[in-house]
Design brief:
The protein contains 10 helices and 16 strands. The protein is 34% helix and 26% strand. By secondary structure, it is an alpha/beta fold. An 8-stranded mixed β-sheet has the order 1-2-4-3-5-16-6-15, sandwiched between helices. A 4-stranded antiparallel β-sheet has the order 10-12-8-13, covered by helices on one side. Strands 7-14 form a two-stranded antiparallel ribbon. 48% of the residues are buried. The chain folds into 2 domains: 271 residues, Aminopeptidase, CATH 3.40.630.10; 114 residues, 2-Layer Sandwich (Alpha-Beta Plaits), CATH 3.30.70.360.
């Protein structure tokens, strides 16, 4: 039994699974689905796992899947998590596996995350009698809308399944392909989503004095909101406020009566986060009132900062150096201002998020959420190996 856990033989088990992993990744990349609509994605992953004789629970928190690999029923649980949803943007790259769904693309690597977790589940199933703990593989929907993790928890994910620790892996084009990025403490920012509706009085473009011009009012509000971070936030507390969408108007010679815009707020400090929320509300309300418009401001307090548990991180470093000594590991010096709803799971279970470098050349170094985003698929083998390693016996 011990020879199955030798680093060389473990690497061979992973290598044997990679044809299926790459095939699944490309299939999912061609058929991306938006948050909350991962019907085909979940079904396809489930069917592949069931065909291998692996237990799959479907429909958790929407289209979520929970895979249980039990070798020692009384020995507790370790959990691994991957997200499944795609983004509402076009796939601009030209590849045989490019998206076939107009306006939807896996531009954040969730197809790779799901494929690597599938590969890890396949290998762990083969090694289940060697595992010191049982393993739960969680395929999560709706990460991009920061709703999926909370939905799975609300659906009783951790009611009967109580893992001792939980891990996730996120692709990262800013590191060389196959490198694992590690960080103790805060890894990702708290992230809120907000939406603003402005209602005024429309009319002819030649007679603005008869109107309440919501386009002009929106522009003033947006400028003022961006000044919050630069002038009202301690520069030692990183924060980002971004407007990502604005809509209003029908013609060049018509002043509309309605404008809306949406965006996100991100920070690494809870006090700073609350200060930004408060000032946003005041600016939006007072500016609209000053010019005679009506404003509706909705802030969705989405996810807290993602904080890697330092004790778990020590265990991760130990496992990777023992079971995957050929994977280069680097320390990430700065936290990301990106949000990750894996932080919802970390409210309940200690754990950590790792980065997997996928930048292997110009074609795979586009930033996350870019229309040309792609991964160097050679890195996925290292990702599967890392996930499997975290579930094996603690090195002596």
């Amino acid at each position: 039994m011990k020879d199955k856990l030798d680093a060389r033989l473990l690497a061979q088990h992973v290598a044997n699974a990679m044809v299926q992993v790459i095939d699944l990744r490309r299939h999912l990349h061609q058929h991306p689905e938006l948050s909350g609509a991962e019907i085909h994605t979940a079904r396809h992953i489930s069917e592949r796992l069931k065909a291998a004789g692996i237990d799959v629970q479907e429909g958790v928190g929407g289209h979520g899947l929970v895979v249980r690999i039990e070798g020692n029923p009384g020995n507790g649980w370790v959990a691994l998590r991957a997200d499944m949803d795609a983004l509402p943007i076009d796939d601009a790259k030209k590849r045989p596996y490019s998206s076939k769904n107009d306006g939807v693309a896996h531009a954040c690597g969730h197809d790779a995350h799901s494929a690597m977790l599938y590969g890890a589940a396949m290998v762990l199933h083969q090694l289940r009698e060697c595992l010191p703990k049982n393993t739960a593989c969680i395929f999560q929907p709706a990460e991009e809308t920061t709703e999926g993790a909370a939905a799975m928890l609300a659906d009783g994910l951790f009611t009967d399944l109580k893992p001792e620790r939980i891990h996730a892996l996120h692709v990262y084009p800013y590191l060389p392909a196959g490198t694992i990025g590690l960080r103790d403490g805060v890894m990702c920012a708290a992230a809120d989503m907000f939406h603003v509706e402005l209602t005024g009085r429309g009319g002819h473009a030649a007679r603005p004095h008869e109107c309440v011009d919501v386009i002009l009012i929106a522009s003033q509000i947006i400028q003022a909101l961006h000044h919050i971070v630069s002038r009202r936030v301690d520069p030692m507390h990183p924060a980002v406020l971004t407007i990502g969408h604005i809509a209003g108007g029908h013609a060049a010679n018509v002043i509309p009566d309605h404008v809306s815009f949406s965006g996100t707020v991100r920070s690494l400090n809870e006090k700073t986060h609350e200060e930004i929320r408060s000032r946003m509300d005041r600016i939006i309300r007072q500016t609209a009132e000053m010019w005679g418009a009506e404003a509706h401001f909705h802030m969705k307090q989405a996810i807290p900062p993602l904080v890697n548990d330092e004790t778990v991180m020590q265990l991760v470093r130990k496992h990777l150096s023992h079971y995957a000594p050929n994977i280069p590991c680097v320390d990430i010096e700065e936290a990301s201002m990106g949000g990750e709803d894996f932080s919802e799971f970390l409210r309940h279970v200690p754990g950590c998020l790792l980065r997997l470098g996928t930048g292997g050349g110009p074609d795979t170094r586009y930033p996350l959420h870019h229309p040309c985003f792609d991964v160097d698929e050679s890195a996925l083998e290292k990702g599967v190996l890392a996930l499997v390693s975290l579930c094996l016996p603690e090195p002596g």
